[in-house]
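pinging the channel bc i need a second pair of eyes. not urgent but kinda urgent?? the chain im working w is below, pasted from the shared doc
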Amino acid sequence: MVGMLTNYYGKMPLNKKKIFLIVGGVLLTAVVVGLIIRKRRKSKKNNKMLKEGIIVNGEYQVPQGTPNMADALHSFERRKSDGYGGRMSTKIKEALVDLYNKGINPDITDLKINVDSKNYKVTWEATIKPSTDGKAYTGIMTFGSAGGGADKRAIGQEETMKKLVGGKDYKLVLDFKNPTGIYIRQFFYKYTKDEYPAIK
């Protein structure tokens, strides 16, 4: 009979209620310990990720026959004429906002770009880390030009683009000059936005 069962000390009789309480306590302890271990592993993983940075990358290749292929080659986001582009800014912004939504002020600390003019292919990689100046950089914009006179045209777009985007605290991330093939001058700026105030 249950009333005749004794605990492992052999001293106190156990009834159903006591058995359920003991079993429940053991299970609860196991669950709590499991959650603590899981939380520590996740925290360790997040700390390593934030220390090394979150990598966002992508690529695009301009299809043969695309109008004005040289212009399409430096359409890192999208161009007005036909909407073609690599959507690079969109992908980086999504990663920045995702980090912000986790309670961390984001920043773009590095941006690498490779342009293969022969095959009209672009590959890029951005590194995102916690901001060190207390600001939340949740936006990135790009503008530029290709071919002869690209430098002058690209530089001339800066003020207009900043006003059009409407961000704040603009800081240059990369002043890109394609070293080989089709000459491209492209600027990449990070910025803050009122809708994403810095997390204190």
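so The chain has five helices and six strands. and The longest helix spans residues 16-52. — does that match what u expected or am i reading it wrong
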